[in-house]
Write a structure and sequence with these properties.
This protein has 232 residues and is of the alpha/beta class. The chain is built from eight helices and eight strands; from the N terminus they run βαβαβαβαββαβαβαα. It has one domain: TIM Barrel (Alpha-Beta Barrel), CATH 3.20.20. Helix 5 links the parallel strand 6 and strand 7.
């Protein structure tokens, strides 16, 4: 399994976002995660497509846009035009989940469904084969710096089982991304449960050396891979 590290810009210095993006890219990040909050679906307000467009020239890394907004559909095309490569959304925020997935893929982006800690995996029953990734929240969305909710670990394992079944049947690769409270001291447990993509905010941007923080993540993930400890 290939593991990917996605620093979350929610914890970056907003006065220096371009510089921060270049710094984590140089430090070895695989993706850049952009949290979009509207103060309606979640109790916080962050950034829009203009910020995504402003960041695009600063990196060749994929920009992973997590839409915590309601409604979703009008913003899909805007973020695609702004340079997003991946767009995820919450099913509770869309009137027609299948249509929103289609809009994302038609815009040329990878489509993901984001599920809050208490949102059941039943939302994947009729959507998983159309998704490119699943984003499982391990905190309640809205704010950075929260503690990882350990009860999400069995949910990650069940999502991995579903993803592997689809991969075996169709040959499609579907990523399993986890976001919220991900740190070096719990990333191995999250990987053992079945995640392959890890969104980390304060654990990276709060470190004095971004490269050292990412290398620490990779070293712990390498131990999991060597031991073959994936729990499915």
């Amino acid at each position: 399994m290939r593991y990917r590290i996605a620093p979350s810009l929610l914890s970056a210095d907003f006065a220096r976002l371009g510089e921060e993006v270049r710094a984590v890219a140089a430090a070895g990040a695989d993706l850049v995660h952009l949290d979009v909050m509207d103060n309606h679906y979640v109790p916080n307000l962050t950034v829009g497509p203009l910020v995504c467009a402003a960041l695009r020239p600063h990196t060749t890394l994929p920009i992973d846009v997590h839409l915590m907004v309601r409604p979703v559909d009008p913003l899909v095309a805007e973020f695609a035009k702004a340079g997003a490569n991946m767009i995820s959304f919450h099913p509770e925020a869309s009137d027609h989940v299948d249509r929103t997935i289609g809009l994302i893929r038609e815009a040329g982006c990878k489509a993901g469904l984001a599920l809050n800690p208490a949102t059941p995996l039943v939302w994947l029953d009729h959507t998983l084969e159309k998704l490119d990734f699943v984003l499982l929240m391990s905190v309640n969305p809205g704010f950075g710096g929260q503690q990882f909710i350990a009860a999400v670990l069995p949910k990650i394992a069940e999502a991995r089982r579903r993803i592997d079944a689809v991969a075996q049947r169709t040959g499609r690769e579907i990523w399993l991304e986890v976001d919220g409270g991900v740190k070096a001291d719990n990333v191995a447990d999250i990987a053992r449960a079945g995640a392959d993509t890890f969104v980390a905010g304060s654990a990276i941007f709060g470190a004095p050396d971004y490269g050292a923080a990412i290398r620490d993540f990779r070293a712990r993930l390498a131990e999991v891979a060597r031991a073959g400890e994936l729990r499915v």
